[in-house]
């Protein structure tokens, strides 16, 4: 295995990062939900689209309460988050028909959490062959549908599933 030495990165990875507010701490009012891509609000948690998705339909499920670890979730939050993950999978299966799903949580910035201080679970639909040459060689992801169109389809599907 080859190693790439980059000692200049130490300053960046060890420096304190400035917080710009938490995108998951949302107001009680629902008037901004469409602008924020909030697909569904539960009692203890909600479903939101990722603005910077890995693939179309990349959703996140997060508690309303600001907490940084799964250790801090209470039983009601854990149960609702799981129920919303199931609902999100059903909605994505109904709208996008993926071949599979990645579901997970990144705890801590070094584990890949872009927002490490508010725990959130990722639901990423996957299709056979969705990792293509653009991703492998160009380090570019191709997202074939506009976020707003995906949002409207998912929001409608959530409503249908909850009837």
CATH domain class: Alpha Beta
- Note the run of SSEs as H and E: HHEEEHEEHH
Question: Number of folding domains?
Answer: 1
Tally the helices: 5
What helical percentage do the residues reach?
25-40%
Q: How would you summarize what this structure contains?
A:
With 163 residues, this protein is of the alpha+beta class. The chain is built from five helices and five strands, in the order H-H-E-E-E-H-E-E-H-H. Strand 1 (38-41) and strand 2 form a beta hairpin.
How are the elements arranged and paired?
Elements: H1 9-14, H2 33-36, E1 38-41, E2 45-49, E3 59-63, H3 75-96, E4 100-105, E5 121-126, H4 133-138, H5 147-161
Antiparallel strand pairs: 1-2, 2-3, 3-5, 4-5
Helix pairs in contact: 3-5
Jot down its keywords:
33% helix; 163 residues; alpha+beta; five-stranded antiparallel beta sheet; HIT family, subunit A
């Amino acid at each position: 295995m080859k190693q790439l030495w980059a000692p200049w990165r130490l300053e960046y990875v060890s420096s304190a990062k400035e917080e710009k507010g938490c995108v998951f701490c949302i107001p009680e009012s629902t008037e901004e939900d469409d602008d924020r891509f909030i697909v569904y609000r539960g009692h203890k948690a909600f479903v939101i689209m990722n603005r910077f998705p890995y693939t179309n339909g990349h959703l996140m499920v997060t508690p309303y309460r600001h907490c940084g670890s799964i250790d801090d979730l209470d039983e009601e939050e854990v149960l609702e988050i799981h129920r919303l993950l199931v609902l999100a999978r059903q909605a994505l299966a109904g709208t996008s028909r993926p071949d599979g799903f990645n579901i997970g949580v990144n705890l801590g910035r070094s584990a890949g959490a872009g927002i490490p201080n508010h725990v959130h679970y990722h639901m990423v639909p996957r299709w056979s062959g969705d990792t293509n040459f653009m991703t492998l060689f160009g380090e570019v992801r191709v997202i074939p549908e506009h976020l707003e169109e995906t949002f409207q389809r998912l929001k409608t599907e959530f409503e249908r599933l909850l009837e």
